[in-house]
Design brief:
With about 210 residues, the chain is mainly alpha-helical. Helix 2 packs antiparallel against helix 8 and helix 4 runs parallel beside helix 9. The protein has one domain. The chain contains 9 helices and no strands. The longest helix has about 60 residues.
């Protein structure tokens, strides 16, 4: 296998680096985008109960202990309690956009690997064909072994480039879909918290 890859020529080096980078980024995102690390169910249930009981200091403490994306969004909403709904919503959306950007971190690296890998494979193909034509120019078409070397190099790099690009495209699309799903869940939790806070504010105002 190693000899097979080496026969692809120098272009195999950047293709190999692209595959390593893409794999590392995918596994990092696979770990970082776990639901338990972004929107843990237990936290959401507990913070809702605290808010229903109007235990805002306890809810804030819980958010700080959690340290997850949803906790940071909820904490901002709690800290804005008592303000107008529009003001709280704007603040929550601002933090939500920042958290969404954090969830998308490194995803563009996968996109770059997916786009660059086939181009590197094409570069290797051109390189191999140049080698082939030089052999033809110098030795003619009768030297089959020499011609086969250049053609083989061209095909190996094409194969390698596509072998890296196809999984990278799938991984990139999966990461984006996963981020979209988590962002939607964040929005649902944030809206629910916003309703609880505004309902408490309305009751407090009515009582006064």
């Amino acid at each position: 296998m190693i000899d097979f890859l080496i026969s692809g020529g120098p272009v195999m080096i950047p293709i190999g680096l692209a595959s390593v980078i893409g794999l590392a980024v995918f596994f990092e995102r696979l770990f970082a985008l776990q639901r338990t690390r972004v929107i843990p169910h237990g936290f959401v249930v507990e913070v809702r109960e605290l808010l229903k009981q109007h235990r805002f200091p306890d809810a804030t403490t819980l958010c700080r202990k959690s340290g997850t994306a949803v906790a940071r969004v909820v904490e901002v909403a709690i800290n804005s309690e008592g303000k107008a709904r529009r003001a709280i919503k704007e603040r929550v959306e601002e933090v939500g956009r920042r958290e969404a950007a954090e969830l998308e971190r490194y995803s563009q690296v996968l996109g770059t690997v997916a786009n660059v890998s086939p181009l590197l494979g094409l570069l290797g193909t051109v390189w191999g064909m140049i080698v082939t034509f030089r052999v033809i120019e110098q030795q003619g078409v009768g030297v089959v072994n020499a011609l086969a070397g250049g053609i083989s190099q061209a095909l190996i790099t094409t194969l390698a480039g596509l072998s890296v690009a196809i999984p990278a495209v799938i991984a990139y699309r999966w990461v984006l879909a996963r981020v979209d799903s988590l962002v939607l869940e964040l929005e649902e939790v944030a809206l629910n918290v916003l309703d609880l806070l505004c309902d408490h504010s309305a009751k407090s105002t009515g009582a006064e």
